[in-house]
Amino acid sequence: MPARATAVERPAGTGNPLEGKRILITGGAGGVGREVAARMVAAGARVLIADRDELDLRRVADEIAGDRQADAIDTVTADLSSGPGLSRVFDRVDAWLGGIDILVACAGVGSGPLMEMPEPDWRYVIESNLASYVACTQGAIARMRSENNREGMVILIGSISVHIKAVGESVYNASKGGVASFAETLRKEMIPDGIRVTLIEPGAINSAMQPFSAEERAAQTAEYRLLPPEQVAEAIMFAATRPAGIDVVTLRIEPLVQKIY
Length: 261
Prior knowledge:
This protein is of the alpha/beta class. The protein is 43% helix and 14% strand.
């Protein structure tokens, strides 16, 4: 008969896996970014949110901070489609966070069909939705490696659209399909470093990226046609709070009545 397993004693203070973690969230003023930032700050993390609009960022940070300590959340305004924007973000990572434990890449823009988009527009979609993910991931992992941070984590927000391949979403799918392949391949490359890479693939989300008014989005959410942003944030939190050695490779979440064409 095999010996009975004994309970493993856990050191005091390890009940909250996000306590004291240094986290960068891109797209932090958007629906999903805002929701996950709020949850991570509440869990004791120090969170830097990056986005393009300074007023939106400040409003979100003020709402999340409440009466918490002043260094719980900070902001950096940057367009991540550009080199200068990326440099600004990681300068703030170094100066304010002093390193990074978790990257959550939520930044993104929508698009139309290829033949309805001038070249600068479709290039902007690719730069924002794919190139910025690659660049931010490289910057985050370089810092994790410099600290030999074997509990580092990268969480990339892809899209269910790459499986649906809906008409009119060719450029958007090119960018999100790139994110999926990047995440799943990079995960294998990072195993020797102990750095985990997770891909989250949400379905249609109740966000400003949808071509509907706020009222229409609310109605579709009530009909289970759009995901509430907080549910996507919960999926991200699930991945972010797994113990070391447990890898959430790909997590797909969609509304009950997900568009399939």
